[in-house]
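Protein 1 of 2
SEQ + STRUCT:
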Amino acid sequence: MSLRGVLAELRQRGVLKVAAAYAAIGWVALQGLSLLFQSFDAPGWVIKVVTTLVILGFPVACLMSWGFDITPEGVRPISPASKKPGPLPTAGAQVSSIIEASASPSIAVLPFVDMSAEHDQQYLGDGIAEELLNALASIDGLNVAARTSSFSFHGKSVTMSEIGDTLQLGLSADVMLVKQGTTNLEAYNLRLQARPWLTAPHPDTANTAIEKLHRALELDPRYWDAWADLAYIKGYLTSWTGDPVPLLVDAENAASIALYHSPTNVVALLWRAFVSILAMRDAATAAGYYERARQAGVDRSLWAFQKAYCYDGPLGQFDEAIEELREAEFRDPLASSVKGALIEMYLGAGRPAEAVAVAEAVLEQGSTAFDALTNSGRAFVANGDLQCARELLSKAWAITDTDQPSAVLLQFEIDAATGDREDAQRRIDRLLGLKAGDPGISAYVIGEGYKALGDYDQVIAWWTSAVERRETWTLTLMAARNRNHPIIGKDPRFLQLLKRMGLQPAAEKIKGGAVANRV
């Protein structure tokens, strides 16, 4: 048989794909395991044994692919007919055609199973899996399923075809997928224990996460990832206060330390993008940080969520935000945060029917997260289904304090839709009473209450105060939710507020989505 014939036969039987996939996945696994063994101070012979086993498995995998096909019914010998040229009516051929037709390969990283005696080490397995996920996300052309979706397979019995297809990663020998974070195991443990807060933020648990990060940094002050996480948490906490400046200063200090020593730290880059537009009124610089985070291999669902709420929505770039969020939703279909951002962007763009479709998908997933309930409720208000909105608001109030801003904002929207001025005024009075003793009560939320009453002079007055204090709500909600409001969206005073924030109306934007003036 000629060399061309041999190559054709190897390609026909899928040997070349298996060889490439085995080499790439084996190499990635060895990179991750070497980091793990180093963290646990494992003797040198351990990694040598594992490497030897991986190498010995290579010819076995190639021989298996030569003589067997992987089908939905299991592994079967290749029949004589399958050796004939042309397309093969087998599951293997279907998978091959899908790979060749797709724009880029995909992979999902599943969490490790906690097999400790006390079953209290799951956070460690999740951390290791997340390290691998982030490393793979840095490979151009490789679609990596985001954390929420890939971790949903934990504890479930699934087939390989349900998890991912065969990959060709195209890695060069000098690529370092896993960056060294810390050599102190206890510092690593503390950061992993704090990290779940980033995907499930709540003000009541923030202090515990911050304390763990501080302890980690006492053990290893050069743990740049811990500095970045600290910046992210303190920055996110600004969403729950009308006095964000102290938190912004602390977060910026932590992010600056992380970026000075680790310029491609994704979490710190996302923070810097956020603070550039909120505090510095510099949307162009924020765009640069978002691009750097994307190139650094960020989890696209986290990236799209942050960019939609803190950049595209405030600038009125709803179509761009929706496109990015749809891509993130494709990769991370179970992430309610992405769907919540989609609801916001559809409503901002004046497309309530599509917002309702997303809200229904959230509810079908059985999500009981507070923000998922209130975001979905907003969609139903916009579409005229007030009964459903009230039901979702009741569920939200059952799991949190009634003064939680998202719930109050939804109630104000229901009051505006039903003309219930009495309820709106009662809630405004309560907020004013609270603010007298707590300057952290949001001026933006009070302004939304006056919007429900139709008192637009008071709306502008309270929102001006919120903008002056750099309230996070003015960036993430005020601008996007009111650009297309039939009255406020045309009010010159509101448009002037947008300019003060560096967020000109869409018609005044210059090339590339950057904005012209800075304040």
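Protein 2 of 2
SEQ + STRUCT:
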Amino acid sequence: MDLREYEQSKFAIAEILRSASPCLPEREEELRVRLQDLFARLAEDRFNLVVFGRFNRGKTSLMNAILRTDRLPIGIVPLTSVITTVGYGSKERVVLKYDNRILDHEIPIEALPQHITQQRIKTAEVQLPAEVLRRGFYFVDTPGLGSVILENTFTTEAFLPEADALILVTSYESPLSEDEVRFFKAGASSGRRVFVVLNKHDTVSLEQRKIALAYVREQLGILFGDSIVPILSVSSTDGLNAKLSGDQRLLEASGLPGLEQQLLDFLLTEKSSEFLRLMCHRARQFLKELPNGAEVVDLVARVDALSQQFGRKTQARSTRVSVSADFPNLHQLQSCEICAQVADKLWNFLCKYQYDIIVGHDEQQRFASRGGLCPFHTWQLWPVSSSYGICAGHAPLFERLAAALRESASIQRLTQIHAQLHELLPDEHDCALCNVRDRAEEDAIDTLAKRLEQDKTRALNTLSAICLPHFVMLTSAVRDSALVRTMLKRQATVLERYAEDMKRYAIKHAGVRQHLASEEETRAAERGLLLVAGRSQVNFMPRQSVDAKEAGDDP
């Protein structure tokens, strides 16, 4: 099981609970509160990873390396007892929470070093659009141990109960100081899993590494006997540089993948399996208290099947952190760029057109002879026109329609009357705005198809969330079959991501935990509809039938 499968398992439990809602007896408020509590537990689940160690051991550098970013400020002087948390956010920001103050304060991440020394600050919540955070990791950067300010150490120790696991970051300069050993004892005695990281192994030779690692193992052996404590040697600096540059060899040499795998294995084989097991147990107990019926029996069977499935999945080793590794910028996606370009051209044309049919006699006559605009665009014209404009521009159209109706009244055969009446209704061929839409759409798709074929990698990484109607049209315009297959995989990944955002928001809403939702999750409904249907002013009716370009395979 990987992080995505773990999250899908929570979605499966939420789906069963949602299906149970109609089975609740009327006026059973207690059962409704319990159902809400089950959703709240799913919404609040996260993996709290507390990082501690003496000042200048490289704690922040290590978090930067794991998160594939250089945005967390390094080298903040330890003059404060502020806890810094790092969680997922749709955009990069820092929220400062104060003692004895209700309102929070948002600052740029670059300003964090200047604010974090203020004693009134209780916590600094850093939000980053990093995929591993979106999947449930939540880092806590504690004040350095051994600080001249004793409160720093107390603050770090007080946060122990919130931790799912602890990372002790020491370094090859002077591994395992007295403060670190004392805190390690407190962490281990609390029952939390502790990972020991010797950072900065790029600064010493292989022989020096062996000596330092042997010393740490010996010291921990004296403290804990045969208990297995993971000890990992890393270079956070090399790890981050390797991730940012794509140097796989340097990444392996940094030791960072080994640490990440250990953390994932712990999350997915210990914490997650326990959480899913308890959630299945709680869901089953809840269902058993509902009035017995075929629907409830079926839901209980689904819970039992999930429970068995989780047991099999947790035995497999995790090999993947991010479902979107091939498309790293998905959190920054804008809505369909083709829709945006077409909508702009429609708006600009509409603003000018409503003026032309007021002052231009020839344009008025053309407008009337076409039967006006299609019904959709008739109402699109209304918001940009005045009552005077509608009256001046549409009166000739009404006169033409009246004359046509009088002419039809003189026809004897009913079938001919029906045929002539149908001619009065404008379609997309007659509507001036429909024609503008078709031309603008064709131009935008042709330009984007050429951009994709000329620079595949860059164009794919900057591509917006193309709506499904335009995605189908775009793939028909691309002649490179390999590129089309890559586009299909990317679009599938975007759809999966939006579905996950929707499911997360639904869980948080059902658990009355909307305040935990990210911006992406809060806007998931609107963004999802834009993805499958596009903008309403653009995708309002089928296009004129055109033959798709012949697709040619690459030689």
